[in-house]
Design goal:
This protein has a domain of 119 residues: 2-Layer Sandwich (Muramoyl-pentapeptide Carboxypeptidase, domain 2). The protein has 178 residues and is of the alpha+beta class. It is built from 7 helices and 6 strands; from the N terminus they run ββαααααββααββ. α4 crosses α7.
């Protein structure tokens, strides 16, 4: 029996599930367990991919997408509030922190009314592949769906163009005119 958090309603409620049928065994070694920076553990990406794959395989792609759309405004509520208050500079700071924490090979540029993030090598895909973790065939969709949900709530438009095979993407964000 394990507890999982429910994103429904943003109340952080827990419900109990009993699922002993679906297990994944990931070999751990001292390198895997070492956290190079506080709060960053790249094995999260492998677990995230497996989680999304599990939901899609057992409940359908629409269920996986709905989960992401419902979860994003709850998890990223502080970011949404910052974007509403400060605009694209808050989103730029968020991506700069993510890029630094992940040691990402990317460029982030804020121009007049547009923020562009060019991910040359996705650190999540790179880590998942290097470890041989299961990769959900639609893994990069989570970025698009979360970006759209967060940005919709913050009054920003988001466009994510990605190539999962190469591990590259371009994410564009623009303030919506009201």
């Amino acid at each position: 029996m394990q507890a999982i958090a429910s994103a429904s309603g943003g109340r952080g409620m827990l419900r109990r599930i009993d699922d002993t049928r679906n297990k994944i065994i990931i070999p751990l070694d001292s390198e895997t367990l070492a956290m190079p920076k506080p709060g960053v553990h790249k094995d999260f990406h492998g677990a995230w991919s497996y989680c999304l794959k599990h939901v899609a395989d057992n409940h359908g792609d629409v269920a996986a997408e709905d989960f992401l759309r419902e979860m994003a405004p709850v998890v990223f509520a502080p970011l949404i509030a910052a974007i509403r208050a400060e605009g694209l500079p808050a989103l730029k700071r968020h991506w700069e922190k993510v890029a630094a924490d992940e040691e990402a090979d990317c460029e982030i540029a804020l121009g007049k009314g547009e923020l562009v993030l060019r991910m040359n090598v996705c650190p999540a895909l790179e880590h998942i592949r290097s470890r041989g973790y299961p990769l959900w065939e639609r893994f990069c969709e989570h970025t698009r769906i979360i970006n759209e949900a967060v940005c919709r709530a913050a009054g920003v438009s988001a466009l994510t163009d990605y190539d999962q095979e190469s591990g590259c993407c371009v994410q564009r964000f623009r303030m919506e005119t009201r």
